[in-house]
Amino acid sequence: MAGRLKAGAIWRGAFAGLGWATLGAQYALMIDGVPPAEIAGRTLNFFSYFTILTNLLVALAMTAPLAGGTAVGRFAASNSARAAVTMFAVVVGAVYHLLLAATWKPTGLQWWVDQSLHTVMPLAMLIDWLALTPRTRLGWREPLRWLIFPLAYGGWTLLHGSASGWWPYWFVDVDALGIAGAAVNFSGLLVFFAMVGLAVVAIDRSLAGRDRTRAPA
Q1: What's the pLDDT score for residue 34?
Q2: Beta carbons within 10 angstroms of residue 166's beta carbon
Q3: In the predicted model, is pLDDT for residue 73 greater than 90?
Q4: What does the pLDDT look like over 18-42, one tens digit per residue?
Q5: One-letter-per-residue 3-state SS of 31-73
Q6: pTM score
Q7: Residue 204's closest CA among 121, 88, 126, 112?
Q8: 105: region left, alpha or beta (phi > 0 left; psi from -120 to 50 alpha)
Q9: N or C end of the chain: which has fewer CB within 10 A?
């Protein structure tokens, strides 16, 4: 048990460092060469990407449990919190590789940052949840609660985009698609979120059942 805890702490420490470094590098790339008067707007746009917000959650999920017995550490280490972040991270990786990767070809540091944000960190979170997070038999209604985050993000995206004319992703660009087209795309994404969430719950309940069958006699 002690060995597993130590290995888990090393794993989370390593990916916490990578996560924060990647976010810092992406922010630096986003404001590179930008006039000082435009930095505030670029910063707001930076925090208006679902990818960035999710990677912030992943970095926090890797960092907070290292704080030990604090309330924040206990919450971040809980199965429900980590399962929710896993759902968000899996969707980020899947949507990027299915819908966005073909639309641009980053090079140099941007390529490395891109791979970390959309591939490495989502996979790290998934593995962490599967291998290091205690099972608690999540309820089937949990994914409905987890949808609050993407729903709130959708509301913010509509508000911010309508005011600024800037949209983070082509499939929610109301100016190009119209409100109906963007709403259809976003509704499809919510269905995908729910499907991933239900898969996460199903895996958790299956693993929890196996853990009980392995209990010592």
Answers
A1: 95
A2: 14
A3: no
A4: 999 999 999 999 999 999 999 999 9
A5: HCCCCHHHHHHHHHHHCCCHHHHHHHHHHHHHHHHHHCCCHHH
A6: 0.93
A7: 126
A8: beta
A9: C
Which amino acid appears at position 215 of this protein?
Answer: A
Residue 175: which of 163, 193, 191, 187 has the closest Cα?
163
Q: Cα Rg for the chain, rounded, in angstroms?
A: 19
Average pLDDT value for the chain: 92
Distance in angstroms (rounded) separating the CA atoms of residues 129 and 184: 31
Cα(99)–Cα(107) distance, integer angstroms: 19
Residue 162 tokens read as 């309508």
Over residues 43-60, mean pLDDT: 98
Torsion of CA 177, 181, 183, 189, to 10 degrees: -100
Q: Which two tokens stand for residue 212?
A: 């009980």
Alpha-helical segments (H) within 64-173: 71-77, 79-95, 108-115, 121-132, 142-146, 148-164
User: Can you give the pLDDT at residue 1?
Assistant: 54
- Of 134, 125, 88, residue with least CA distance to 14: 125
Answer yes or no: are the C-beta atoms of 133 and 84 closer than 8 Å.
no
* Amino acid code (one letter) for 166: W
Within 10 angstroms of residue 195's Cβ, the number of other Cβ atoms is: 13
Give the whole-angstrom CA distance, residue 89 versus residue 61. 11
